[in-house]
Amino acid sequence: MAYKDFDAVIEAAKHKKRGVRVAVIEAGEEHTLDATMQAWRDGIIQPVLLGNREKILTLLKEPALAETVIHTESPEESARVAVRMVREGKIDFLMKGLAETSTVIRAILDRENGIRTGRTISQVTLIAVKTYHKLLCVTDPAIVALPSLEKKKDIVQNAVDVLNKLGYSRPKVAALCAIEKENPDMIETLDASALKKIVDAGEITGCEFEGPISADIAFDAAAAKIKGYQGSVCGDPDLLLMPTLAAGNIFCKAMRQFAGSINVGVMVGAKVPMVLVSRSTNTKSKYT
After folding, report:
1. Which end of the chain has the least Cβ crowding within 10 Å, N or C?
2. 262-268/274-276 β-pairing
3. d(Cα 261, Cα 85) in Å, to the nearest integer?
């Protein structure tokens, strides 16, 4: 299956009525609380609100959630408490409120008290844009700057796991490069070719994979046919593996700036995922 847009994802989540336990780190901000309340009313989440209790209660428009507030003295303490609750099995998902990303990541990666898994931490960005027929997943546009082959292996598996959990049985992965052939001067082409073999050997599971593959034939089946490139991914990718953080970051920002896309980022690879949104993001985007 594939989702056309975020509205379809939200409707599917409403029908599941799972009540995912979400810790909101530094929840004392209006848009964060409004988004949290909406998701709670829709039966999607069961929140725990971390931060200054007085500030949160002043902004909170849902009295029933007052009992979910845990007072903390600082963003650092909020992050540590949230991570501890994950280790204790009380939280399924993290959401960053007013805390800085670096503060939360330090708590997650703490060698003694963090929630590492041994897998590379990476970001998956889901993009909804009117010019593409379904949601598009991009990795990694935010965390791993220059991933090695071994890290790319983790990055692909992280993203595939996200799509598998959303209901995609075998998402189609395109390892984007400038060309479709190996070139020793372009390390990403060698990595893409190696990853293709790793997938074929079953070391990365749950997906179909093509690479190296250029953007034109990844998105246009007719272009692929002209160039003699065969593969089920052509014209229909679910996931784009970017060669570097810079490439992924530029792509995602360009899509938002010039195509009006809606982008939603999730950090994965730890024991639980974390929603990464800008502190200035509005209610609708944070809810999505």
Report:
1. N
2. antiparallel
3. 34
134-160 pLDDT, tens per residue?
Answer: 999 999 999 999 999 999 999 999 999
Residues 6+ apart with CB under 8 A from 115: 83, 86, 87, 108, 270, 271, 272
Q: Are 133 and 99 in contact (CB under 8 A)?
A: no
Edge-to-edge order in the sheet of strand 20-25: 69-71, 45-51, 20-25, 93-96, 274-276, 262-268, 122-128, 136-139, 239-241, 172-176, 208-213
pTM to 2 decimal places: 0.89
Over the stretch 160-204, which tens digit does the pLDDT of each residue have? 999 999 999 999 999 999 999 999 999 999 999 999 999 999 999
108 alpha-carbon distance from chain centroid: 16
Q: For the domain with range 122-268, which CATH number is right: 3.40.50.970, 3.40.50.300, 3.30.70.20, 3.40.718.10?
A: 3.40.718.10
